[in-house]
Amino acid sequence: MNRNILFVAAVAALALVAPAANASGILYFNNPDYNGGFSSQNDTTGLGNFATVWSGFDNGGAASVDEVAWIGSYFNPPEARTIDSFTLSFYTDNAGAVGSFIGSRTIAGNAGETFLGLDNISDPTYLYDTLITPIDVNAKGWLSVVANTSGTTTPQWGWETGEQVVVSYQEFLGSTTQLQTAEAFALYGNLTPEPTSMAVLGLGVVALIRRRKASK
Predict the structure, then answer these.
(1) For the segment 104-130, what is each residue's pLDDT rounded down to a tens digit?
(2) How far apart (Å, rounded) are the C-alpha atoms in residues 36 and 115?
(3) Of 36, 78, 108, 147, which residue is most buried, by most CB within 10 angstroms?
(4) How much is the pTM?
(5) What residues have CB less than 8 Å from 149, skipping those under 6 apart?
């Protein structure tokens, strides 16, 4: 079961609720602006992976991610449909662009799809939240969230935009476009100590052991 980490619907934004004290912390979040979603969908029985959106993040340090939450919506027409699974993929950052592939996690089912209401263009909007097998990422990187569906390509599923106005990218039917927004999502996990910090910690342990031996 997911930890008690939720986006809570408010008048114009979602307030992020912090995890319990014994849970891993918030690494990054971008709350939604409810201005609509960009299609990011794999039609497994038709067009295939015809649309993918990548959105950047900055954790402030290398980290191990163990939970992801995001906001999405349905449009064209604005009706909910069945999600077979989601594929979450992580990439390095290459000077502000999507870099090398790190790894992906496929989440069976609809990732706890929870209805939030209608966005500013009257599309039904939902919260998704899932634990994942931890994956190590750099301080800065990119995440793609793709809904895997069967049957026709409509209605489309889209990743809702967020309040932060920074660059993201969408590939649609083979054409890549730079978007002047970033998508709404949050990453949870733990920052990874840098090698120098680990070395200092190791020296401290060695010194402690030596002192204990000397006192015997």
Answers:
(1) 999 999 999 999 999 999 999 999 999
(2) 15
(3) 147
(4) 0.81
(5) 41, 42, 43, 44, 81, 82, 83, 84, 157
